[in-house]
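Ligand: nicotinamide-adenine-dinucleotide. Inputs:
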Amino acid sequence: MTILVTGGAGFIGSNFVLDWLAQSDEPIVNLDVLSYAGNLENLAALDGDARHVFVKGDICDRALVDRLLVEHRPRAIVHFAAESHVDRSIHGPGAFVRTNVEGTFVLLEAARAHWSTLDGDAKARWRFHHVSTDEVYGSLKAEDPPFAETNAYEPNSPYSASKAASDHLVRAWHHTYGLPVVTTNCSNNYGPWHFPEKLIPLMIVNALAGKPLPVYGDGRQIRDWLYVTDHCSAIRAVLERGRVGETYNIGGWNEKANIEIVQTVCALLDRLRPSTDGPYSRLVTHVTDRPGHDRRYAIDARKIERELGWRPAETFETGIAKTVQWYLDHPDWVARVQSGAYREWIGQQYGR
Ligand code: NAD
Ligand code: DAU
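Predicted complex:
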């Protein structure tokens, strides 16, 4: 048995691959194009491990996906690959439509062709697990209940619109063709290997460099935060025990305003790596708000708990402390990401 993971060199994907192989000997074929967000250094611990087969390639490449399905005959596809950064989607939405919509379409068509050749138990147990986001539901008012799986889709950014489109394709491939799919919609992840374009890692690395900590608008926007390995365990639960055709919301029951997150990071750094220039919060700088910025996300994660018994293991306090410590312990990883040196590995590996 084996599974095919897409986007397994990105933030959540690499955590998922490491976590999976720490708990199971079932091999992973990891298909990743190594965009700016893909970093094989995240997976260095698996060098020489035969259970991890890395394939540098594009999910939009139908011939490649077909070949991988024929060669490796995975029992499931776990689909992480995406353009994931909202700010980048505002500056350049085309890449988001291509990877998130067209790429998901290509995978679904390849999966459908492969699945139709199976029979019996192999066909019944086969899964396409689509990893999606809470942003498809739009923005909540302060008094609104958290997002449930039954909420209408109201995406507001090019990123969330592209993810919503991919969710709809996945739903339709189940409804029309019977493809056995599950979809998970998760809130904001944080933890190790997080690319420092996103809020938490950006604040940590900027603070350590004595640079401004850019807070969009008033900083009162609210997100729900989930430690990344809790997302990984939720995906495993849904993949193994989730009902076919269902969607499951995944969240940490941790609604926090951005400014509170930034202050928490500063306070942890003050304790763990004090600056001689004074508290890190002196670096907080309010900047122009993100266009169309969603005000609040919150997740009602009762369905996955009720049906599958999943709950996050980390609280925000334990998760953020581990995360800040991880960045302090990995200055070389941060330096190589910031200098772009992590991308040289691709040339060294594939230039041969
Ligand atoms: P990421 O940007 O860190 O990683 C994306 C990975 O996909 C990278 O390794 C990249 O090289 C790869 N990729 C991009 N285009 C590709 C293509 N055309 N073919 C093959 N590989 C390609 O993203 P992430 O934060 O790890 O998110 C992973 C998934 O989880 C995404 O689908 C995202 O929408 C979803 N998600 C993320 C969060 C979050 O907080 N980060 C929350 C909920 C859902
Ligand atoms: O909700 C899940 C989503 O969370 C995922 O689907 C996305 O892939 C992921 O990127 C994330 O989206 P956000 O836009 O919420 O994450 P980001 O880290 O970019 O921003 C978090 C909040 O912090 C948001 O309200 C914008 C704000 N922010 C962000 C940055 C980068 C700032 O105030 N300053 C910043 O410099």
